[in-house]
Design brief:
Layout: H1 4-10, E1 20-26, E2 47-52, H2 56-65, E3 69-76, E4 81-82, E5 85-86, H3 88-91, E6 135-144, E7 154-160, E8 173-177, E9 191-194, E10 208-214, E11 217-219, E12 226-228, H4 230-236, E13 243-250, E14 263-269, H5 273-286, E15 296-303, H6 312-321, E16 326-332, H7 346-352, H8 354-361, E17 366-372, H9 376-389, H10 395-404, E18 408-412
Parallel strand pairs: 14-15, 14-17, 15-16, 17-18
Antiparallel strand pairs: 1-2, 1-3, 4-5, 6-7, 6-13, 7-10, 8-9, 8-13, 11-12
Helix pairs in contact: 7-9, 8-9
């Protein structure tokens, strides 16, 4: 799902806040100290670690505890960074750098954990890769999601990210910088898309990230010509092996709760299914030793036609396999009618199930998520407001309390 509002907010964080350095390290070994950290240890050869200036002393101490030896320190400029690695041109520029005074500064970049590590990640990765130094991944999958007879085209895209340090959590987004330039001859600006895969990727090997992208097309109001969205068209037309410039990840609003017994209510339209596809795979498909979901998940999905139900086979399989833990409700606007005889939208489904949903929402372990078209919010609020009034409660006040408690999550456009 493309999120223009999130893209606008991310523009504030596009410049480096500090100088960066590359440590070339040898001799790292698996021991009691390295078992405490989320960092992949190589058995031989050099490991290159990107370090901000403010943490150089701390990183040196950490490397020593891990049994490693720093053989060189190199300043990392924008020009010589490629996917967080040292380019060949910069290899000859290695210089010894004076150690700075130790400082305590919070940084967003973390080492990429691996799926084999038992401990659950508590850090939230943010802006590991930025627009000036994006990660260059490769497309390894591009599949059509709209069935025959559906409207438009929507693709499930998978990118190889094994060549860098990018990692992410369910509910986050990544930025895509499409190839080419705009009408002013400048590189295209990034667009943000909700991630549709779990933190371990579709192949459960920590090497991929996936998106659900609908090609944007509309008629020009003056000429009547068909206009295609720049980034969505770029992505939908990718071939296997094509390079893709990726930034991020970003976003903390749509993260899943850590409680495996939580109730998860998901309301989506169209490609708003993207983060929920990641949730459901995390909750039901992967079943990791460190996270086994025992709660209840309810997805209410709004689409135009049956062929436009994205991931339909997967969703219905989950409903069949986990009838006590997962409920699937469709709102198919061009095929179903609401109680008044009009088109069936997601807010009508919420109204039909308002009493049950309201009872569920009042439980402290329930988290509610809305993702997709902004227009559905008013109808959802109206349905829940009417139900809350029956208990002499004001929905707007209750909703604000839920937001403050981190139980009401919204990402709409």
């Amino acid at each position: 799902m493309y999120s223009p509002s999130a893209a606008a907010n991310s523009a504030k964080n596009t410049d480096f806040g500090s100088r960066m350095f590359i440590y070339e390290v040898v001799g790292l070994r698996q021991n009691e100290e390295t078992d405490k950290i989320n960092y992949p240890i190589r058995r031989s050869g050099s490991v290159f670690i990107t370090v901000p200036y403010s943490r150089m002393n701390q990183e040196m101490q950490r490397i020593t505890r891990m049994g490693g030896k720093i053989v060189s320190i190199q300043h990392l400029s924008v020009e010589n960074q490629v996917n967080g690695k040292i380019s060949k041109a910069s290899e000859a520029q290695k210089t010894q750098v004076k150690k700075p005074e130790a400082q305590e500064t919070k940084v967003d970049k973390k080492e990429k954990p691996t799926m084999t590590q038992a401990k659950a990640k508590t850090e939230i990765p943010v802006n590991i890769y930025r627009p000036k130094t994006p990660f260059v991944g490769r497309c390894v999958g591009n599949e059509e999601l709209v069935a025959e007879g559906g409207i438009g085209t929507c693709r499930h895209l998978t990118f190889d990210i094994s060549g860098g340090d990018l990692w992410y959590l369910e509910g986050q987004s990544i930025g895509i910088i499409p190839d080419g330039t705009d009408e002013n001859g400048k590189p295209h600006k990034l667009r943000l898309y909700s991630i549709a895969s779990t933190r371990h990727g579709d192949h459960l090997d920590d090497k991929t990230v996936s998106l659900c992208v609908r090609q944007l097309q509309y008629k020009h109001p003056e000429t009547g010509e068909t206009v295609s969205g720049v980034c969505s068209t770029f992505l939908c037309n990718l071939n296997q092996g094509d390079e893709v410039k990726i930034t991020g990840p970003v976003g903390k609003e749509m993260l899943l709760p850590e409680n495996p017994n939580a109730n998860i209510i998901m309301m989506a339209t169209g490609t708003g299914i993207a983060p929920f596809r990641a949730y459901l795979r995390r909750l039901f498909v992967e079943q990791h030793e460190d996270y086994k979901f025992n709660g209840f998940a309810w997805l209410i999905l709004g689409v135009a036609t049956t062929p436009n139900i994205l991931y339909k086979e997967d969703l219905e399989k989950l409903q069949e396999e986990f009838p006590n833990n997962f409920r699937l409700t469709y709102a198919i606007s061009r095929e179903q009618k609401n109680s008044e005889g009009g088109k069936m939208y997601i807010q009508h489904r919420v109204a039909e199930n308002a009493e049950e949903m309201w009872n569920l929402i009042q439980k402290e372990k329930t988290h509610s998520y809305i993702c997709g078209l902004k227009g559905m919010e008013d109808g959802i609020d109206a349905a829940l407001s009417a139900q809350a009034e029956k208990d002499d409660l004001n929905w707007s006040e209750y909703q604000r309390a839920m937001k403050k408690a981190g139980r009401w999550h919204v990402e709409t456009y």
